[in-house]
């Protein structure tokens, strides 16, 4: 039986999906939440195998929730549940931010319920599930582009190093260790990185680094 938790502020969608899952032989809904403010405690309590995560929720975005869960589970030596984003957003920035945070799939809310169930089974079998139009955007983002001068954003060598560690998913503590600097210096570098990349969060910085190929060989 696949245990599924749903984080979505759309009450009707949340309840409808739960009813459909509970009527499916190999699925059961384990937790329904209108926001992700207590996501860590909810996941500890419910022990879901798969999480359906909306992006735009009050108090904490779904992408922030995924990043928080990933950091907490890694620090505790626990496996991260399979996380499927279920959202209306189709922009590349949010897609990459979600994947970078730890999501293994990205579905649009217009996806039929039977396809959502297929996606849940797919990620449980080790796959990655995406709405076809989203998968196409991801492929297009990785297609070779006409050669142009490399994007640098005038980052210093140390800022590049810190940003690379962010892309790798390191916590601030690990970044400080790898870079041989203090936590305070890490935070200073990250503030400067956000300003130069014109972003406001870690997930946005990682998404921009991936999209622009800052660390592509």
From TrEMBL:
<keyword id="KW-0238">DNA-binding</keyword>
<feature type="modified residue" description="4-aspartylphosphate">
    <location>
        <position position="54"/>
    </location>
</feature>
<feature type="domain" description="Response regulatory">
    <location>
        <begin position="3"/>
        <end position="124"/>
    </location>
</feature>
<dbReference type="Pfam" id="PF00072">
    <property type="entry name" value="Response_reg"/>
</dbReference>
<dbReference type="GO" id="GO:0006355">
    <property type="term" value="P:regulation of DNA-templated transcription"/>
</dbReference>
<dbReference type="InterPro" id="IPR011006">
    <property type="entry name" value="CheY-like_superfamily"/>
</dbReference>
<protein>
    <submittedName>
        <fullName>DNA-binding response regulator</fullName>
    </submittedName>
</protein>
<feature type="domain" description="HTH luxR-type">
    <location>
        <begin position="146"/>
        <end position="213"/>
    </location>
</feature>
<dbReference type="GO" id="GO:0000160">
    <property type="term" value="P:phosphorelay signal transduction system"/>
</dbReference>
<dbReference type="InterPro" id="IPR000792">
    <property type="entry name" value="Tscrpt_reg_LuxR_C"/>
</dbReference>
<dbReference type="InterPro" id="IPR058245">
    <property type="entry name" value="NreC/VraR/RcsB-like_REC"/>
</dbReference>
<dbReference type="Pfam" id="PF00196">
    <property type="entry name" value="GerE"/>
</dbReference>
<dbReference type="InterPro" id="IPR001789">
    <property type="entry name" value="Sig_transdc_resp-reg_receiver"/>
</dbReference>
<keyword id="KW-0597">Phosphoprotein</keyword>
<dbReference type="InterPro" id="IPR016032">
    <property type="entry name" value="Sig_transdc_resp-reg_C-effctor"/>
</dbReference>
<dbReference type="GO" id="GO:0003677">
    <property type="term" value="F:DNA binding"/>
</dbReference>
<dbReference type="InterPro" id="IPR039420">
    <property type="entry name" value="WalR-like"/>
</dbReference>
